[in-house]
Amino acid sequence: MSETILVTGAAGQLGQRVIHHLIETYKVAPGTIVAATRSPEKLAELANKGVVTRKADFDDAAGLEKAFAGVDRLLIISTDALDTPGKRLAQHKAAVAAAAKAGVKHIAYTSMPSPDDSLVTFAPDHLGSENAIKASGLAYTIIRDAWYHDNYLHSMPHNLQGGKWYSATGDGKVSTISRDDCALAIAAALASGTSDSATYTLTGAASLNNRQIAAIAAEAAGKPLEVVDVNDEQLGQGMLGAGLPGFVADMLVSADANIRAGKFDIVTEDFTKLTGKQPQSLKDFFVAHKAALTAAGNAGGH
Fold it and tell me: For 249-293, how does the pLDDT look when each residue is reduced to its tens digit (9 = 90+)?
């Protein structure tokens, strides 16, 4: 009898890709996959493929226990509740407790690199969630996703339009990976049937500083791009001026500070260990997303 795999946040971008790779890449039978989200009506396409859909609301502990019933392997994709401090960690702890009560055998969780040594505002959420999973006594797979290539698609079109990228990362380097590669590796871990506990850090094959990243973006877009070094305060003010909410500006400033401090300068072979493949380079990602990079009028914040 094959295992039942439940994916939370199944309507989100990462959840969608994990389920895609479970079915298409790793040939997991759709009937053994449960896609869970607050609004299951968003999952009609998956339901048509034979995937089981369930409602799972991280703010409803009793409902979570019901949603996780009969599940062998649970993937908790970290929620997007970042606007209220402490809320996300409370949600994740509720999910872990519900999983233990429901008799889940193995928990997988999407974390971030080195959450125990990080300047990123939401790092304590991830550290607390990892610790709650370890304290549950259940077998676990913690998958620490590096900063996504995809995150640059929010700001780079705007930067390329003006020809300037305001950055507070200094000489710090960061190793980024595509969201789809993370989904592929997570799906590999879920489909592996492993009963061992392990922690993986998914990164690209190279670490780059902001000038190297700017050169890659400029080449892919066919437009010049100059890096302008700013400090944290200037970066934050620019983001607030562009209309970003305070908690988002704080998060992005903290990410730049984390890169500047060398804390995102991590390269591992874990992606290859899980998938047997090489991760897509930032250059190939930018080339593949040239249309998004050069989209006029896509003036998000810095």
Answer: 999 999 999 999 999 999 999 999 999 999 999 999 999 999 999
The pLDDT assigned to 236 comes to: 96
Residue listed under structure tokens 């993370």: 182
Please state whether the predicted TM-score (pTM) of the whole model is above 0.85: yes
Contact 165, 214 (CB under 8 A): yes
SS (H, E, C) 179-219: HHHHHHHHHHHHHCCCCCCEEEEECCCCCECHHHHHHHHHH
State the average pLDDT for the chain: 95
Supply the range of the domain harboring residue 55.
Answer: 3-145+177-200
Are 271 and 202 in contact by the 8 Å Cβ rule? The answer is yes
Distant-in-sequence, close-in-space partners of 86: CB < 8 Å, separation ≥ 6: none
Q: How far is the C-alpha of 207 from the C-alpha of 63, rounded, in Å?
A: 42
Q: Which residues of 244-264 are buried (b: 16+ CB within 10 A; e: fewer)?
A: beeebbbbbbbbbbbbbeebb
What DSSP element (H or E) covers 234?
A: helix 232-241
Domain count, the chain: 1
pLDDT tops 80 at residue 208: yes
Q: Is residue 170 domain-resident?
A: no
Place 58 in a pLDDT band, splitting at 50, 70 and 90. Answer: very high
* CATH number of the structural domain spanning residue 42: 3.40.50.720
